[in-house]
Amino acid sequence: MAKPTRTRDPRTVREGRALREHFIESGVLEPAVRDIIGESWMRSRQAGVDPAVVHAPYAPDIGATELTPIVQAVMGRMSKELAGEPVSMIFADRKGQVLHRICVDASLRRVLEKVSLAPGFSYAEQTVGTNGIGTALERGAPTLVVGDEHFSEPLMRFGCAGAPVHHPVSRALLGVLDLTCAAGASNPLLLTYARILAEQIKEEVLTRSSSREMSLVRDYLAACRHATVPILALSDDLVMMNRLAQQRLDGADRTALIAHTSDAFGAQEPRTFVADLPSGASARLDYRPSLVGDAVIGGVFRVQISRSPAPLPAIRSRPEAMPLPGLAGGSPPWLRTVGQLREAHRQGTWTIVQGEPGVGKHALVRGIHLAMTPGRHLRTLDAAVAAEDPDSWYQEVEEEFGLDEGTLVLRHLDRLPDVLVEPLATLLVEQSAGGRGPQRWVVATYDTAAEDAAARACVIPSFDRTVVVEPLRHRPEDVRALVVTLLRTLTPAGRQLEISPGALAQLARHPWPGNVAQLRDVLRRIVALKRSGTIELADLPAECMSVGRRTFTPLEALERDAITRALHDHRGNKALAAKHLGMSRATIYRKIRAYDIVASART
């Protein structure tokens, strides 16, 4: 196997240093700076990173996880391949904290210690600036950073390549694999090796997960054998449900039901509990743990559904008759969610609004408040910034509870700092004991992808109801209405900008993994470039030209965007696009089908 060594051109080094120094002094990026590096430098500067000194936070208690033996085994095998090479292998968690490091070369190890590139230290981009670990995590894609491309001067002596590691089943980010060597010894092979190692860790996780999940599958199949009720089976990385669950529960109810399983998930003993669903139905869940030895690896839930004899008033009502500021939609999931929130607001029911990032949870709560009680007090306190000054944030929450009416929104409750979990939980219990009325509405927004077990266990039980906002890919009919509404909002006064039926249809077909936030960002970029007239299919960015509903890995997304850009630049000519990308025509045809890319000719 070829070794990742190379001597850098001194002239290139001098030019790179000049580009970095110019940016540090002026904040202006020269065109010669690579896009990914320039974007990272800007983020580092905005985060206040010191370009002269490395300040890497340290957390001593990193502990061992289920991933530890896998990472150590894979890195141990690769260390034999790189024997004799001054290359360090590092694995950091999804927040950038270094967990494992193998560095046989003593001189390189001493240099790494000087810049705190060692277990326990955080190499997140916002703390140490542009680097292979933090920037790869920030981009969600493999990243090579060499020499003067680092934001911090002490790191300029290194070349580092980071490759994110995702779970093979859930696609959850597990961490990042980084290879670091001297800058003068770096070359693109460093990134290739990092990708190989990341893929090997992913494959090992799949191998070890499969044996555990087979136990859960066996328990699930046994429960389904003579089942006359919905059956759910869940582990950290797997969700299964039988046909009855899919037939008797709509998407919102299924999502809410899975969220409620956290009340029992991981428990050693069987238990039974009741959950209210968005449709108004009540679900009784009988939980049985699935075990491998003494370890709980998941659980099976038998679900008994009880439905109300009459539809809820919120469902009978027509939410679209009351326009919500800046919002639009007419799909059944959207109307149901709006109806549920209107009813919760009318009764003053403390509510968790749950959904994927970017789906518009806070905007919906704000819209409900402004539509129903426009003159009443509205206050949003964001838990995502509470860590900056926990005492002041908590005091503001206390002051809000001193008011007799209005709406209090606890935004990003899933990001609540650990130090505030217990105090906030206690405060909510105390306020709840004092009675709740229709004049005072307390709402919290919570991301479904969050892993904050403490907030789930301590804070969320104080709320009486959970309302789920479905992701945009589950309600494509709402995209058309949203595009019109957002364009009206984003287009400056005095400008006329419309969208063609073809472009609108393409936007409606796109899966929008970033939900409404991504759609708004795309339209903002289009409006910035299209001064007036009609937005055509050719005006849409490359990321919108895929219509598949599956989630792409970061590498797949990069490849898909490269292909769509090449097709766009060559007026839909697949042969020219393939030549531009250095692939065969057969390959580009296969990729177009795999990514569901719409290849239309430009006019």
What does this 3D model show about the protein?
The protein is of the alpha/beta class. The protein has five domains: 10-207, Beta-Lactamase, CATH 3.30.450.40; 226-306, PAS domain (Beta-Lactamase, 2-Layer Sandwich); 313-470, P-loop containing nucleotide triphosphate hydrolases (Rossmann fold), CATH 3.40.50.300; 471-539, Helicase, Ruva Protein, domain 3 (Orthogonal Bundle), CATH 1.10.8.60; 541-603, Arc Repressor Mutant, subunit A (Orthogonal Bundle). It is built from 21 helices and 17 strands. It has helices at residues 10-26, 35-46, 68-81, 106-114, 125-128, 132-139, 189-224, 243-248, 251-260, 313-316, 332-347, 361-372, 390-401, 418-433, 453-458, 477-490, 501-509, 515-529, 554-569, 574-581, 585-595, and strands at residues 87-93, 98-102, 143-146, 158-166, 173-182, 231-234, 239-241, 271-276, 282-292, 295-306, 351-355, 378-382, 406-411, 440-447, 465-468, 497-499, 533-535. The strands form four sheets. The protein has a five-stranded antiparallel beta sheet, with helices on both faces. It has a five-stranded antiparallel beta sheet with strand order 7-6-10-9-8. It has a five-stranded parallel beta sheet with strand order 12-13-14-11-15, sandwiched between helices. Helix 16 packs across helix 18 (515-529). The longest helix is centred in the middle third of the chain and has 36 residues, at 189-224. The protein is globular and about 70 Å long. It starts with 9 loop residues before the first helix and ends in an 8-residue tail after the last helix. Residues 1-8 and 309-321 have low confidence and may be disordered.
